[in-house]
Amino acid sequence: MGASEALKPAPRIAVSGLGKIFPGVTPVTALDNIQLEIGQNEFVTLVGASGCGKSTLLRIIGGLEYHSSGTLAASGRPIEGPGADRAMVFQHYSLYPWLTVRENIRFSRRLKAHRQQLTESDVERASGRADSLLELMGLSAMAQAWPSQLSGGMQQRVAIARALMSRPEVLLMDEPFGALDAQTREVMHDLILHVFKLEKPTIVFVTHDVEEAIYLGQRVVLMAPRPGRIDTIYDVPFGSDRRQDLKHSREFVELKREIVERIRQTAGMRTDTDLLARLSGGE
Amino acid sequence: MSRSRQTARPGLWAIRGPLSARHYTGFAMIGLVTPLLLWWGLVELGWLSKVFLPSPLAVWTRFLRWLTTDRLMADVGISLYRVMAGWALSALFALPLGLFIGTFRPVQALLEPLMEFVRYMPAVAFIPLVMIWVGIEESAKVAIIFIGTFFQMILMVAEDVRRVPTAQIEAAQTMGATRMEIIEQVLLPSAKPALVDTLRITLGFAWTYLVVAELVAANSGLGYAILKAQRFLQTDKIFAGIILIGLIGLLTDQLFRWLHRKAFPWAHLKH
Ligand SMILES: Nc1ncnc2c1ncn2[C@@H]1O[C@H](COP(=O)(O)OP(=O)(O)OP(=O)(O)O)[C@@H](O)[C@H]1O
Ligand SMILES: [Mg+2]
Question: Can you tell me whether residue B220 is helix, strand or coil?
């Protein structure tokens, strides 16, 4: 091993030869020989046809699912389970409805306080970050509200703020905006890019929306199903300053068309008119 | 969710539509008073013998006599004690065990099939066994109510804990929570409203086992009074006893619901 190689920092996330088989009557190979390195402060998005293993890969990185073969490490340490260094944002139902917005965001801080036998006032003093996050997310006015009083977009902002609270090195997001309407999504996109610049986390972001994947990601990882594998990795040629009108640029539209087309090919879905005719013929 | 419903003022019969407090009280009153009126009317027609169906007035007089000269409050007191003791004892064991069944799969495999099996055994059939094992003291009556309540309760508690969304647990895991912390700070608070509901419903079960429990060598209690009245064909007293049990049940039920609203305001938000 050369000296220069030894000095190279370990990637935030290193996945090598990773496989995942769900056992069962008919075992499913959800992931096959996955090779992926994600650097520090990189924003990577995962796209691909439904069932290609995006969620499974993300959950394995998060330590919420075991892998069947291969190796996987975060900052050079093998991943053996969930940890506070890799926070996850889910699509639904992950907020704690019995806690207010502020208490939700402070949840990880409360865990810590419990362990160190701190009093409530210690927690109070340490919660300046919760307030900054509330402000960053535009939630200051809702700090004392319960999650069920918020709109879907606001709820996801709380979930993101809660995940950011303990300054995780990696933020894992599984279709976090999948249930939101188009306008709210756009707002969330710019918000998450802002957070990315400000907090400098590493983000792995799963989506089925190619436009979202390109707009947010520095690299778009396209996965293919049966067995779940990485098909192509696209470098997104846009800098860190992204605005909504970027989506209408020729380059953006072209890249989007290319990726969408490739997903369609890998999905192996038949689109021939013959089949359509038979389906609509009602036979 | 409710937004689409509010485009026009919804009628009373909208599916899952809202109902004002005034309307609610009105309908509840109709539901409660109608059977009473039917009962009264049926008696007034005079087709049926008094033993078959006593008049509401006769039941009321019997109730007053019971209260003033036949130590009604003592009967209520001892029955209340038996029901509460049997139910509380069930809760004492069912809450922790149910929590573990709903949390750890090995505990589930270990206990759940057994509990499913036992809960189909009729509590009445345990009376002779309880008499042999526990005797005929107060503890025997409490034991019968325990048997009738516990096996249902433990399964309901386990289900309440299992209903906690996985995402809530996994979110805590990725925030570095340990197993103990997840149980204390996610599973319990998340399941708490459902657990209080389970306690409320199983208290109802406990009351239904009262008469069965007081079959065991009792000489006081509401269930015992009903059984004795049966022997002497005092239909009016049977009615009085049954209605009283119903009212006490209704009262504790409402108490639990009130407690639920006070303790978990977040679970009662509309939309
Ligand atoms: N717990 C499980 N048990 C068995 N099979 C599973 C399990 N979870 C996922 N799978 C299978 O693994 C494959 C990949 O699933 P995964 O949820 O990772 O796909 P995905 O890319 O996230 O799909 P989607 O876009 O629909 O969310 C699918 O074939 C799925 O049926
Ligand atoms: Mg998925």
Answer: coil
Cβ contact A82–B173 (<8 Å):
yes
Contacts of A90 in chain B (CB under 8 A): 167, 170-171
**Beta bridge partner(s), residue A1:** none
Alpha-carbon distance of B76 to B221, in angstroms, equals 6
Q: Say if CB B206 and CB B244 are below 8 A apart.
A: no
pLDDT band for position A38 (cuts 50, 70, 90): very high
Judge if the beta carbon of residue A133 lies within 6 A of ligand 1.
no
- Work out the average pLDDT over B104-118: 94
CA distance B72 to A55: 65
For residue B186, the chain A residue with the least C-alpha distance is: A96
User: What are phi and psi for residue A208, nearest 5 degrees?
Assistant: -110, 5
Q: What would the mean pLDDT of A87-102 be, rounded to a whole number?
A: 93
Of A82, A93, A114, the CB nearest to B167: A93
ipTM: 0.87
Question: What does the pLDDT read at residue A120?
Answer: 66
Provide the whole-model pTM: 0.87
For residues A29-47, give the mean pLDDT.
94
> Considering only CB atoms, which residues of chain B are within 8 Å of chain A?
165, 167-168, 170-177, 181, 185-186, 189-190, 192, 264, 266-267, 269, 271
Report how far apart the first and last C-alpha atoms of chain A are (Å, whole number).
66
Inter-chain residue contact B266 with A97, CB threshold 8 Å: yes
Domain boundaries, chain A: 12-85+168-283, 93-167
CATH class of B57-268: mainly alpha
> A12-85+168-283 domain in CATH 3.40.50.300?
yes
pLDDT, one tens digit per residue, over B126-138 is 888 888 898 888 8
What pLDDT does residue B269 have?
85
Q: Is the pLDDT of residue A270 over 70?
A: no
Q: How far is A220 from chain B (nearest CA, A)?
A: 24
pLDDT for A116 equals: 73
Domain segments of chain B as ranges? 21-48, 57-268
CB A36 within 8 A of CB A15: yes
Closest-lying ligand 1 atom to the alpha carbon of residue A24: 4
Round to whole Å and give the CA distance between A272 and A91: 34
